[in-house]
Amino acid sequence: MHRFDAATALERRDGRFAATLDAGFNVGRSPNGGYVAALGVAAIGKVLAQPDPFSVTTHYLRRLESGPVEVEVDVVREGRSLSAAEARLYQGGAEGARMLAVFGDLSGLDGPTAVRGAPPDLPPPDELVASADVPGLPEIVYRLDLRIHPAHLAGLVGQPSGGGEVAAWMRFADGREPDVASLPLFADAGPPAALNLTQAGWVPTIELTVHVRARPAPGWLRAAFRTRYLVGGYLEEDGELWDSRGDLVALSRQLARVHRPRES
Amino acid sequence: MHRFDAATALERRDGRFAATLDAGFNVGRSPNGGYVAALGVAAIGKVLAQPDPFSVTTHYLRRLESGPVEVEVDVVREGRSLSAAEARLYQGGAEGARMLAVFGDLSGLDGPTAVRGAPPDLPPPDELVASADVPGLPEIVYRLDLRIHPAHLAGLVGQPSGGGEVAAWMRFADGREPDVASLPLFADAGPPAALNLTQAGWVPTIELTVHVRARPAPGWLRAAFRTRYLVGGYLEEDGELWDSRGDLVALSRQLARVHRPRES
Asked: Are A76 and B82 within 8 A, CB to CB?
């Protein structure tokens, strides 16, 4: 079993789902927000008839820690093509995250298609530094294989480029292929694009919305994250995920807040 | 009293809020999605201590009609700087919309600011056609004064420009000034940008998220809406709202679905 699947495994218990947040997906002392969203998506997926999360919004309410959690899912509306549900994630009796999602079926969509964007331009992955070879990064980085565009590395060492962008190749480090269940994780797995706008110690997510638009093909994902509006310390981060066929597979947007770096 | 304020007025009744959806904000036979979101924001604003909706996600569950509705609000988390709440809007005993929101206080934000975008380039409003002078448009258009960029009008008459954009000046027709309470309405009040990608009969919103980033100054808003990814009939529409000082006041993103035009 791949680590992400173990980390999002759920057991039904008294009308809730029990799970364990894996410290291997931490950023500092807390689980990555995209990982928390993926766990909620897994729980909602057990309840709704439709297989694919079309839109998932997660509000982060309290600091979570690795260890046991419970997820409660309520069906909001069951429909023929789309169904909606809510998930509430509890730890130590307190609600740590709440999610609202609509699921559908991405196979057999027969409406019109018009694409006005393209995957980010990146050098081949084997010409780029693999995150696993860099010591001292957040735990989650070692579960993944990230290859960040060289022009976007400056902010990660405290020298913001000013462009507010981070583009990267992404895949699981253990060979697990990407799927719709893991896209919420990838949508929040890059370093904050805001590090290329301003010096920051910590950029916690307040709310994250992911739209899954297609089932990804096996292989590398290409991700492009961009922050254009940092205002009074609050910012949006917009993400695009593209699969190895060159198809857009997800869009994300999060509201986050910059905390200044600690004085040393 | 201005029409928008009457249309979002709430009366406490048995632990819920009673309101009346005003047909003046309809698109066809249903209330505009941004108007429904604004009504939910008004209800949540009565319950939380913080004044400003930082992020509001609305899921549209069933077709609503003008007339009486009830809104139930639950506090999800009360915090010092941010508080979260959920609202459920009922009509005829069925839930028609569910919202998840986080409120804060936009006054006195003291974090860093870096802006990497600009308001859309528009000819002066008095050189553009006022929506109120065009007959046969959806009802909501006459509650507003919309002045659409001439280059973006083609899709509205069935000739998509291909660019997927609609930029416009916007204000209330009755002189009411914009504020944070009305930004969710403006964020969904333009014609669908997808009309400049494909011919469509109807583009219903499935989910709408609005981030309010600043309190708007009095005067015209400038709005820019853009759809880049129409895939199998599903699309995102990204919106930016700018105030008369040239400050970004809100970002929006919605997931919507194109229905083909009726054969004539």
From this structure: no
Average pLDDT value for residue range B236-264: 93
Under an 8 A CB cutoff, do B253 and A117 touch?
no
Query: Which residues in chain B have Cβ-Cβ distances shorter than 8 Å to A234?
Result: 54, 109, 111, 213
State how far residue A257 is from chain B, nearest Cα, in angstroms: 9
d(CA B240, CA A253): 14
Best to test chain B binding among A48, A52, A54, A55 (most B CBs inside 10 Å): A55
Give pLDDT tens digits for A200-246.
988 999 999 999 999 999 999 999 999 999 999 999 999 999 999 99
**Cα–Cα distance between A13 and A6 in angstroms, integer?**
17
Report how far residue A96's alpha carbon sits from residue A18's, in angstroms, rounded to the nearest whole number. Answer: 14
Q: Are A87 and A103 in contact (CB under 8 A)?
A: no
Which residue pairs, CB below 8 angstroms and at least 24 apart, start in A7-13? A7/A35, A7/A39, A8/A35, A8/A38, A8/A39, A8/A42, A8/A181, A10/A39, A10/A42, A10/A43, A10/A46, A10/A71, A12/A46, A13/A70
For residue range A147-180, list pLDDT tens digits in order: 999 999 999 989 999 999 999 999 999 999 999 9
Question: Which residues are CB-contacts of B158 (< 8 A; sequence separation ≥ 6)?
Answer: B199, B261
What residue of A is the nearest CA neighbor of B197? A114
CA angle B87, A8, A101 (to 5 degrees): 25
Beta bridge partners of residue B67, listed in sequence order: B21
| Angstrom distance (rounded) from CA A256 to CA A197 | 14
Mention every residue, 6+ apart, whose C-beta is less than 8 A from residue A246.
Answer: A119
Instruction: Give me the helices (H) in B70-227, please.
Output: 139-143, 183-186
Distance, in Å, from the CA atom of A7 to the CA atom of B220, rounded to the nearest integer, reads 50
In the three-class reduction of DSSP (H, G, I as helix; E, B as strand; rest coil), residue B122 is classed as: coil
A149-158 per-position pLDDT tens digit: 999 999 998 9
- Chain B residue with minimal CA distance to A248? B229
Contact A206 B253 (CB under 8 A): no
| ipTM exceeds 0.90, yes or no | yes
Q: What is the pTM assigned to this prediction?
A: 0.98
DSSP-derived pairing of the beta strands B83-91 and B67-77? antiparallel
Residue A7 near residue A144 (C-beta atoms within 8 A) = no
Contact B109 A209 (CB under 8 A): no
